[in-house]
Amino acid sequence: MKPEKIYIETYGCQMNKLDSEYVNAILTEDGFTVVTDPDDADVILLNTCGVRDNAEQRIHGRVGELSSLRRFKPDLIFGIIGCMAQRLGNNLISDVVSIVAGPDTYRLLPSMIEKALYEKTSFTDLHRDETYSGIEPVRVCSHSAWVAVMRGCNNYCSYCIVPYTRGSERSIPCDDILAEIENLKQNGYREVTLLGQNVNSYNDGEINFTRLLERIAQTGIEWIRFLTSHPKDLSVDILDVMSKNDNICNHLHLPLQSGSDRILKAMNRKYTISRYLSLIESARKFIPGINISTDIIFGFPDETEEDYRNTLSVMQSVRFDFAFLYRYSEREGTKAALFPNKVPEQVRLDRLREAIELQNSIIRQKNRERIGATYVVLIKGLSKDKQGWYGFTETNIPVVVKSKDGASRIGSFVNVHIEDSTGGSLVGTAI
Ligand code: SF4
User: Fold this and answer.
1) 236-244 vs 273-286: helix axis angle to the nearest 10?
2) Which residues pair with 225 in a beta bridge?
């Protein structure tokens, strides 16, 4: 019997979440039905991340777990798509897994699924021109949307697998992006997040990222965010456009990765700490009150105690509003995987733990300083205790909103008076 019902489970970054929305659109267009419960599915697709080893281990575990459903449905088909699929290709084909598809091959999924009961297939070609343009993603959220402005990356940071799994950089034409955002606005969307591995290097041949941002601001969509910036490409012009347009959110995600110039060089990041700090200073000068978040890796090969202390010292001086902190995870095929002087795993973990403690104390202190203020919050859903709501400020701070009226506020902007904070979140009452 032809498989009809597809369940998609997504791991990893926002780009992967958007890709799952594209996959949903491609399959729906071809007559398949996307379901939300794996028990109902004829096909299970796991859209995977390959950035860290533990992300891949999780997928192997999840395939094992879900394969028990075959006891009731022996023809259940499994597919692995996304970055891990691209990285490991044919090696993932097994008794359980029949479909392997890299991020540039999703248009082939309908035919791969149709054949999967009698043929196992793996497609991992990278296509320089694939941007999924012309496909309208099936969005999971009715008020916030991810909008890809580019795909791929040319930077080859020495620790990173992404240029190998997502291919080289390509920018989506400005007019297509503007049309997509106009359409979202007409359909009641209030917030867009522009996505790209390195959005600051956007260039469609005529328009750079600064001009793109300016044109998107002119659409009048209420909140605009963008991810991810790169310190080598973020310009003062971009900060200027942010400062002049109220609908561009005052939040900047600017990966630091290390506080040591020596390690940044080995990482092939192409900026120095002094450039990074001067960008932070400019951002705070152009946009007073801007929130700055970051990514940092601990235990990169040859990271000495001194390098590590330098990173902590940058964290102390910048006082990031949020930080994604990781221990270095070796990825086969990257340059850094061949570097000598690996930092022992326990040292990586100890450094990471100490850094998390530092960052948590900074966030707690910053959040205490926010008590008494009033923020506009875009409500995203019910709070954990179901007694209120949760959402984010324009500067991307998570807020739990106490509310007694019981009316659905999801997708609304609400003024919230902050009364308390719990670790990473603010707590307040809708006014
Ligand atoms: S900029 Fe560097 S870290 Fe980011 S995706 Fe590209 S190679 Fe990876």
Assistant:
1) 20
2) 193
| pLDDT tens-digit series, residues 50-99 | 888 888 999 999 999 999 999 999 999 999 999 999 999 999 999 999 99
Q: Could you read off the pLDDT of 147-159 as tens digits, one per residue? A: 999 999 999 999 9
The token pair that represents 145 in the structure block:
């949307």
Q: Is there an atom of ligand 1 within 6 Å of 155 CB?
A: yes
Number of H helices, E strands in the chain: 12, 19
Ranges assigned E (strand) in 239-340? 251-253, 291-298, 322-327
- The closest residue, in CA terms, to atom 8 on ligand 1 is 160
Q: Is the CB of 257 under 6 A from ligand 1?
A: no
- Enumerate domains of the chain plus CATH numbers: 5-123 (3.40.50.12160), 144-367 (3.80.30.20), 374-430 (2.40.50)
Lowest mean pLDDT of 52-66, 248-262, 341-355, name the range: 52-66
- Cα gap 15→18, rounded to integer Å: 5
Kindly report the pTM of this predicted structure: 0.94
Band (234; pLDDT cuts 50, 70, 90): very high
Q: Report how far residue 295's alpha carbon sits from residue 52's, in angstroms, rounded to the nearest whole number.
A: 14
Nearest to 403 by CA among 387, 391, 417: 387
Q: Is the CB of 197 under 6 A from ligand 1?
A: yes
Q: Name the nearest CA neighbour of 98 among 136, 44, 55.
A: 44
> Which ligand 1 atom is nearest residue 160's CA?
8
DSSP track, 207-249: -BHHHHHHHHHHTT-SEEEEE---TTT--HHHHHHHHH-TTB-
